[in-house]
Amino acid sequence: MVLAIASTSRNILRHCTCSATPRRLLATSASLLSQTHNFTRLPHRAILPLKGQDAPKFLQGLITNDIDRLGWSSGPKGRAILQQSEEERERDNLLFAAVLKADGRILHDIFLFPSLSESSSPSTTTEPSYLIDHDITQTSLLQSYLKRHILRSKVKVAKQASEGLELLVAWPKVENGEGVGETEGKEAEKWLKEVAGAGRDQRREGFAWRWVAKKNDKTVEPPSSLFTEVTPSHYHLHRLLSAIPEGPQDYPPLPLEANLELMGGVDYKKGCYVGQELTARTFYKGVVRKRGVVLRLFREGEEIPMILLPSTSITPYPNLFPTPSAQSTLTPLLSSVARPRPSGKIGSTLPCITPFGQSLTLGFGSVRLEHVAQNGEDEEIDERIGVFVVNPPKVDKEVEMEDEGLKESGEGELEEGGRWLAKAFVPEWVGERLRDAEERRKV
Question: pLDDT: is 276 or 35 the higher one?
Answer without folding.
Answer: 276
